[in-house]
Write a structure and sequence with these properties.
There is one protein chain. With 79 residues, this protein is mostly beta strands. It has a domain at 2-12 and 24-46. 0% of the residues lie in helices and 23% in strands. The chain has strands at 2-3, 25-32, 39-46. Strands 1-2-3 form a 3-stranded antiparallel beta sheet, with no helix packed on it. It is elongated and about 55 Å long. It starts with a strand and ends in a 33-residue tail after the last strand. This is T9SS type B sorting domain-containing protein. It comes from Psychroflexus maritimus. InterPro entries: T9SS_type_B (IPR026341).
Length: 79
Amino acid sequence: FSVDGGPWVAQDGQSSLIFSGLEAGEVEVIGRDLGGCATETKLVSLIDYPKFFTPNEDGFNDSWNIIGLANQSNAKIYI
C-alpha cells in the first residue's frame, strides 16, 4: 500500500497494515497486487479528535472539535 503517493510499505504476504502519523482529512490509498502489476485507488477520510475536553472556560480544551468531519454530512456522534 501507498498513502498519498508515499513509499510502498507492504511486505510480501502482509495482510494488515497500520499507518501512523497521518493528518486528518482525505488521503489517497493505493493498493497493488503482489506482482506489482494491478493497482486500485481509494479516497479515505481520516478524522482526529481530542481524547477529552474540559468546558470550564479556562481557554484550554473548552470545546470538542472533530477534525476531518466537516464533509461527512451523515456522520453521527454518540457520547
